UniProtKB/TrEMBL annotation:
It is an enzyme of class 4 (lyase). Transmembrane segments: none annotated. The gene is ireb2. It comes from Scophthalmus maximus (Turbot). GO terms for biological process: tricarboxylic acid metabolic process. One of its GO terms (molecular function) is 4 iron, 4 sulfur cluster binding. Residues 654-780 form the Aconitase A/isopropylmalate dehydratase small subunit swivel domain. Keywords: 4Fe-4S, Iron, Iron-sulfur, Lyase, Metal-binding. This is Cytoplasmic aconitate hydratase. PROSITE patterns: ACONITASE_1, ACONITASE_2. Its cofactor is [4Fe-4S] cluster. CDD domains: AcnA_IRP_Swivel. It catalyses: citrate = D-threo-isocitrate. Its EC number is 4.2.1.3. Residues 70-567 form the Aconitase/3-isopropylmalate dehydratase large subunit alpha/beta/alpha domain.
Length: 847
């Protein structure tokens, strides 16, 4: 591979220097090409990487020209991107490290040098997704959560420690430091990289769906599958079709009572309605300057919810002010500013003459934002807080759908008494039983967390409490959050209301919440109640928090606290009190909501540089006669496909663990056993919410067509494989939406699935299927399984031509024939598929 400053490099003439020639960089001014100044800044980052890594093999001069010609080549040309680093969390980090260790063995067996198998791209692995809540109030245990985690995950943690020593270019961040996206923001993000005398923009691909949060700091990054990340680690660039870039122009002023989360949800709604799937979003306009760096990262984090690839905030004066609070030295800040201005990656949003040209522009008025929550089943279904009570009532009335629960009128007033910790309580429709401030979205934003803390302080001082049966928890994104909550003096008040710090990492959001008290579960079942969970994350698919909690709402941290105190979502905060003081006085939300000035002053006093410094010391085509393993409908998410949360005691995975003489208490979660293919394969399609048309009701079951037996999905797949029968999956629209997880492709592949035929796919999941060697096949427009009169019980054969090309139509036969489109977007996709998937291609290249 060419060295950037070598005489052979085709773009050596563009080299410039900073700091008296000590640091070299690519200077776009030397291009003397007027197209550069018109490029969106996110495309300029891709261009810089292409020029710097232009080696004539992975990255060619043609790729550089295509990037410069972005206006004409968008959505047409395929370009490579070599990010500055790779980010892994432990769910995907374990299989990545296991795969690399296995590749070392394979290379050694073939006479090669196993030391070749090391990440070429710097890789950070953050141990954060292991968190499982064991401890809660009224729990009889002598061990706190952190102690339980060390006991449960000892073997995994030992493996991570070994990896940090065995592999070069791997940095392992130990547990109890922070969640992956939070550590990325606070510690790993550099905005600029300085290596071997070269300076260039920081950029990243990560295996966590929240990787996009980093775009709020002007660092280009997005989530990829575990298989793609491993390829990047080994030196392969990410291949992408040159994206369209939507300019999001922010105007107007933010209402003082509106939190950043309200702004996030408002922008999310606008962008979701704009239909920007698979596109880059880049923010500009005078309104951007009103958003703090934490506000921007919170907005950037939500881009998977409106299906954008990234939501990019270019570096400006606000970004520089943010890094002055961190452990950046003055010298590094000056170097960053000088470099970003020299390469025109620095913005003044008040100057419209700097605005680049975009594929299209969407204008959003910030003054239109009002407080919202989202739910009860999907993040895109927003509800104004003022109309929450009325909306929940309509959800009870509506037929079962994305919002409705269809509760009969005569049963809507049902109240079920129960005993908890020796005291009697009542549950009704709308009762809150889970209230969680978690690490997914909001804890990167000091203002909303401090708002929650100040609200808790005022509530406790007013004599308000949270009912003890409500599962409350606080899982900060990092120790910094705990630090500023403690420094500001609000943490004890959160604890008094039950929001105790249970650890650092993903917990409630991925189904790792502590079980509800049995009395609560029994009361919910007895009254067939629509119980509610309220959380400050960005994911809340039905049944994800707990299978008996049907309604789940996303809310800002202070609203999570408010609804926990109220004990119900069926409340009008303007007209109804949260509760009563000890002397019987009514207390309304407005009485304890902190002012914007109070919040800003507290943030200024506590979120300071010392806090940061303290915390930082061979694939086969389906042969003739493939059977359908599953016949699925629309909106099958990665939650339905990939194992998540605790391991049910009646599941196929549980049966396997019992056979290994483990007790149910030792089962742990699917996330904790992500490196065990036997467990993870058995957990694939093990969701209790899986709707399989073969069965007609939800559950992890399917029909073994030859025998007519109803079996666990794994057991059916295992029987098909033993009989040598290949498998396909039939599905509807939006197959594979949701979080990125490597096992959404690995699991089906190990079950014997070789093709998925669906009406449409979520883009990232489609790429994961290609990476594992599973064909993503799409019905032609206007066609689906029903229009083709497929029962799913036919035997299918997909005929592959000798020469396969992107987006080629293939013939599928099952008695009668129909056409499907092979969703290979690029020639690279085809190459990976023909080699049996991306990892097998990389391994063969090494050999």
């Amino acid at each position: 591979m060419f060295v950037f400053v070598s005489a052979e490099h085709p773009y050596r003439h563009l080299i410039d220097s900073l700091e008296d020639g000590r640091i070299k960089f690519f200077n776009p001014q030397k291009l003397k090409d007027p197209r550069y100044d018109k490029l969106p800044l996110s495309i300029r980052v891709l261009l810089e990487a292409a020029i710097r890594n232009c080696d004539g093999f992975y990255t060619k001069e043609e790729d550089v020209q295509n990037l410069l010609d972005w206006q004409q080549q968008q959505n047409k040309a395929e370009v490579p991107f070599s990010p500055a680093r790779v980010l892994l969390q432990d769910f995907t980090g374990i299989p990545a490290m296991v795969d690399l260790a296995a590749m070392r063995d394979a290379v050694a067996k073939h006479g090669g040098d196993p030391s070749l198998v090391n990440p070429k791209c710097p890789t950070d692995l953050i141990v954060d997704h292991s968190l499982q809540i064991d401890y809660s109030k009224c729990t009889d245990t002598s061990l706190k959560n952190q102690e339980m985690e060390l006991i449960r995950n000892k073997e995994r943690l030992q493996f991570f420690k070994w990896c940090s020593k065995a592999f070069k270019n791997v940095n392992v961040v130990p547990p109890d430091v922070g969640a992956v996206h939070q550590v990325n923001l606070e510690y790993l993000s550099k905005v600029i990289q300085v290596r071997d005398g070269l300076i260039y923009p920081d950029s990243v691909v990560g295996t966590d769906s929240h990787t996009t949060m980093i775009n709020g700091l002007g660092v280009l990054g997005w989530g990829v599958g575990g298989i793609e990340s491993e390829a990047v680690m080994l030196g392969q660039p990410v291949s992408l079709t040159l994206p369209q870039v939507v300019g999001c122009k922010l105007v107007g002023s933010i209402n003082p009572l509106t939190t950043s989360i309200d702004v996030v949800l408002g922008i999310t709604k606008h962008l979701r309605q704009a239909g920007i799937a698979g596109k880059f979003v880049e923010f500009f306009g005078p309104g951007v300057s009103q958003l703090s760096a934490p506000d921007r990262t919170t907005i950037a984090n939500m881009c998977p919810e409106y299906s954008a690839t990234v939501s990019f905030f270019p570096v400006d004066q606000v970004t520089l002010q943010h890094f002055k609070k961190t452990n950046f030295t003055q010298e590094k800040l000056e170097l960053m500013e000088d470099y970003m201005k020299a390469v025109k990656l620095f913005r003044s949003f008040e100057d419209p003459s700097e605005d680049p040209q975009y594929s299209e522009v969407i204008e959003i008025n910030l003054s239109s934002m009002v407080p919202y929550v989202s739910g009860p089943k999907r993040p895109q279904d927003r509800v104004t807080v003022s109309s929450m009570k009325q909306d929940f009532q309509s959800c009870l009335d509506e037929k079962v759908c994305f919002k409705g629960f269809h509760i009969a009128k005569e049963k809507q007033e049902t109240r079920v008494p129960f005993l908890h910790c020796g005291q009697e309580y009542q549950l009704a429709h709308g009762s809150v039983v889970i209230a969680a401030v978690i690490s997914c979205t909001n804890n990167c934003n000091p203002s909303v967390m401090l708002t929650a803390g100040l609200l808790a302080k005022k509530a406790v001082e007013a004599g308000l409490v949270v009912k003890p049966y409500i599962r409350t928890s606080l899982a900060p994104g990092s120790g910094m959050v705990t630090h500023y909550l403690s420094t500001s003096g609000v943490l004890p008040y959160l604890s008094q209301l039950g929001f105790e710090v249970i650890g650092y990492g993903c917990a409630t959001c991925v189904g790792n919440t502590a079980p509800l008290p049995e009395a609560v579960v029994d009361a919910i079942k007895q009254g067939d109640l629509v119980a509610c969970g309220v959380l400050s994350g960005n994911r809340h698919f039905e049944g994800r928090l707990c299978d008996c909690v049907r309604a789940n709402y996303l809310a800002s941290p202070p609203l999570v606290v408010a609804y926990a105190i109220a004990g119900t979502v069926g409340i009008d905060f303007e007209k109804e009190p949260l509760g009563l003081t000890s002397d019987g006085k009514e207390v309304y939300l407005r009485d304890i909501w902190p002012s914007r000035e109070e919040i800003q002053q507290t943030e200024e006093d506590t979120v300071i540089s010392s806090i940061f410094k303290d915390l930082r010391e061979s694939v086969r085509e389906p042969r003739e006669g493939a059977h359908a393993l599953l016949f699925l409908g629309d909106k099958v998410t990665t939650d339905h496909i990939s194992p998540a949360g605790s391991i049910a005691r009646v599941s196929a995975a549980a049966k396997y663990l019992l056979s290994k003489r483990l007790t149910p208490r030792e089962f742990n979660s699917y996330g904790a056993r992500r490196g065990n293919d036997a467990v993870m394969t058995r957990g694939t399609f093990a969701s209790i919410k899986l709707q399989n048309r073969f069965i007609g009701k939800s559950g992890p079951k399917t029909l073994h067509i030859p025998s007519g037996q109803t079996l666990d999905v794994f057991e059916a797949a295992d029987r098909y494989q033993r009989d040598g029968v290949p498998l396909i999956i039939l599905a509807g629209k939006d197959y594979g939406s949701g979080n990125s997880r490597d096992w959404v492709a690995k699991g089906p592949y190990l079950m014997g699935v070789r093709a998925v035929i669906a009406e449409s796919f979520e883009t990232l999941h489609k790429n994961q299927l290609v990476g594992m060697g599973i064909m993503p096949l799409q019905f032609l427009p206007g066609q689906n399984a029903d229009s083709l009169e497929l029962s799913g019980k036919e035997r299918f054969t997909v005929t592959l031509p000798e020469s396969l090309s992107p987006r080629q139509q293939l013939t599928t036969s099952q008695g009668k024939s129909f056409l499907v489109t092979a969703l290979f977007d690029t020639e690279t996709d085809v190459i990976f598929f023909q080699h049996g998937g991306l990892l097998r291609y990389v391994a063969r290249t090494l050999l």
